[in-house]
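Methods — Computational structure assignment.
A single polypeptide chain was analysed. Its primary sequence is given first, followed by the predicted tertiary structure written as structure tokens.
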Amino acid sequence: MHDGMDALVGDDDVVPLKRPRKGIYVLPNLFTLAALFGGFYGMVMAVNGQFMNAAIGIFCAMVLDSLDGRVARMTNTQSAFGEQMDSLSDMVSFGAAPALIAYVWTLQNLGRWGWFASFVYCSCAALRLARFNVNTQVVDKRFFQGLPSPAAAALVAGFIWWCTDSHIVPSSVAWPMFCWALYAGLSMVSNIPFYSFKDFTLRKSVPFAVIVLIALMIAIVNLDPPTAMFGIFVVYGVSGYVVYATRKFTGVHTSMVSTSTDEPDERGLHK
């Protein structure tokens, strides 16, 4: 009996145990998919001529994109799959979607120059996301290297939202939109430092005046959301250049990269 059992479990007959399959965390990826839907919704609305809804879709995607990472950290569900999914979602919602919405809204009136500006913005968003992925470990966490893609998308979508709400004829602002798209796109691939707010936490106590200021900001946004939201991101979109000029003038090191990488082909990205 023992001889037969030994034969069944001999070295040649041992069946390796199957490793459990790696699953995908649902909760953070739900937020990522929702952000992706916001960008897709914006493109659909633009094709249908509903540009205010298209711009709002981009802003909703931006809010949802800011939550997926926080949810993953709070629930300890970070994964490599989630990181890749987030990058692909950002490319659609903050790269392709704003470029297409801006083109359909007014840039198509400029012919080749219109799709030139749209493509420059879209390609800069892709380059910015790729650089962010390879520079994650070497950039000062307090700042972004270049304008983050959600903020760039907010500049483009915010301009469209504000103009639509103000009943401005799109064809009359084709060239301003051209310049604005180039500004947002090229700012993404620049080395200008933009504050990341990553050192801000809700767990720390703050003075009472800060709570009052937050209440005032909420009230101002509610008075005129398109103007307020566009104005906030215009200030942020300019703030990086102010920080850069201040650092340059005072002789402070302006680069946000703390160390160099071991890949020679990537060193040029850190200048």
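Note: The first strand starts at residue 143 and ends at 145.
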